[in-house]
């Protein structure tokens, strides 16, 4: 994690807790998946494990903040699911990231 992103994870964990609290009233259950991404540099054999590792680092940090109350999964997308089309170094940097997918499913 980059400096300052710990605060972002704390805010995200508060939002996740609130969604978890509200979901049953709508007949829903909460699912949280952390997905790692990479830029196009390197092979898929390198990028896929790297993206999984990125996701796992964030999953572990979120789990420490949330405790056992919410199940978190982690996966890696490698370069197959870019956050941005890579036209610049800034775009590549954006793709070296992690996204958190929060979904509500029928309970």
Describe the fold and architecture.
The model has no long low-confidence stretch (mean pLDDT 93). The protein is an alpha+beta fold. Strands 2-1-3 form a three-stranded mixed sheet. The longest helix is centred in the middle third of the chain and has 23 residues, at 44-66. Helices cover 45% and strands 21% of the residues. The chain starts with a helix and ends with a strand.
How do the strands and helices of this protein lay out in sequence?
Blueprint: H1 5-22, E1 28-36, H2 44-66, E2 72-76, H3 89-95, E3 98-106
Parallel strand pairs: 1-2
Antiparallel strand pairs: 1-3
Fraction of residues in helix: 40-55%
Class per helix and strand makeup:
alpha+beta
Low-confidence stretches: none
Q: In percent, how much strand structure appears in the residues? A: 15-25%
Rounded mean pLDDT is 93
Q: What is the oligomer described by this structure?
A: single chain
Distance between the termini: 33 Å
Enumerate the strands of the largest sheet in spatial order, edge to edge or round the barrel: 2-1-3
DSSP helix count? 3
According to DSSP, the number of beta strands is 3
Rg over CA atoms: 15 Å
Q: What string, H for helix and E for strand, traces the elements in order?
A: HEHEHE
Largest sheet: number of strands, sense, barrel closure = 3 strands, mixed
Shape: elongated
